[in-house]
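Re: adenosine-5'-diphosphate structure - here you go.
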Amino acid sequence: MTTYEPVIGMECHAELLTQSKMFCGCANEFGGAPNMRTCPVCLGLPGSLPVMNRQAVQLVLRTALALNCEISRDCLFARKNYFYPDLPKGYQISQYENPIGMKGWLDITLEDGATKRVRIRRVHLEEDTGKLVHAGGNESEVDYNRSGVPLMEIVTEFPPDMFSADEARAYLEKLRSILVYLGVSDGKMEEGHLRAEPNLSIRPAGTTGVGVKTEIKNLNSFKSVYKGIQYEVERQTAVLESGGAVRQETLGWNDLRNETYHMRFKEEEQEYRYFPEPDLVPLHFDDADIEAARAALPELPDAKRERFVSQYGLREYDAEILTASRPLADYYEEAAGDGADPKAIANYVTGDLARLMNASGQEITEIKVSPVSLRELIQLRDSGKITNAIAKQVLPEMFETGWSAQAIIDAKGLAVVGDESAIAAEVDKVLAANPDVIAKIKAGNEKSKGFLTGQVMRAMKGQAKPDVVNRLIDEKLAQL
Ligand code: ADP
Ligand code: ZN
Ligand code: MG
């Protein structure tokens, strides 16, 4: 049997974070009663005229620059004509030739830590459609609240640079992270604010051509992108192996059955009859516009990751995790400021705190442990006021209650026991109870000491310092 590898291109749509819609003054918001945010323009009523949303243009320019694109100095909007009830005008205003951004790229990090460059063919601005609600029976209803919401489309270059479901997911994660860093999208895939459409063909592994592709429409999670690609690779492989030919088609994704389903063949697809939109003036960017937008770009994930490595001495791996989301990076930097050990803070944020967040399903922006109180916890530990064991025990309580570490330590009497005679008394008890272990140690089995330390630590409820415990054990053993 031939082994095949996938060849993958990605189209992504992001709803832009503007106040109002693309060509009218209706609010750009999510949810609410159907058809409340509509007007003659976004309902496509005859005689209404579009007015361009300047902020939306700025957000696409910002994205194109962040994705290392060349900027088209002059771009036209175009009418993309097709008929569907969610598109009341009978055409979508989009961009065709000269999109705002062209020939860009972004770098993704692969499983083995290597980076790979994925080229981007275009970044353009268009408007979203309304939403059909299939109410059951023979009825469908339409909600135009989303009609005319500014939509950005980002398409990867041809021939494609991605050859596995992992790479495609890494691309999408990186793109989402950049869009959220830029403040152009909220990145909420589950609400359809960021949607992905993988285009995929397969070829015998080791060859360089591209086969006939299929396109999976409107995926709204990383998981469905991953699974959809895997499913399509298997399906196309089975088609070729049985002597058939893949047909160019547009597919939907069934999230419950984990399979793609046929929507339409390419030959059934509409002829869009693009032509320049006569109701809008052409866009023009001069050097000053472009340089001003470039200068206003925030620090992006790659640059932040490199800075975290050099400024805080973090490992690449930790820096990658901490900078994957901007709120997480901000949280970390606030906690790491002001004298606490930045590596210890990174360990807590990517370790214990991440586990607590996973278990409770909370995002970093929702938790009750502020960056400052995390820093205080670690400072209490590093200054020797509490042991590491107690710090690990206090964090879940902080997470649960929102109390400061100090308050919990005071309320529960968890501070380090400074009185060595109290520890020495426990050491005596443990030694008296374990003559067999002492015999082993005397016989040269140093490792058995760890058992004694553990017993004393347990008796002290984690409030004795391990080095003090070890010293006392050594002293007592020497006297035996
Ligand atoms: P369409 O017009 O059908 O949407 P495009 O030419 O706009 O197709 O390409 C959409 C995406 O699909 C791009 O990322 C492109 O690189 C990718 N693509 C095009 N042809 C193939 C193919 N044969 N196999 C895999 N991906 C492809
Ligand atoms: Zn409107
Ligand atoms: Mg397409």
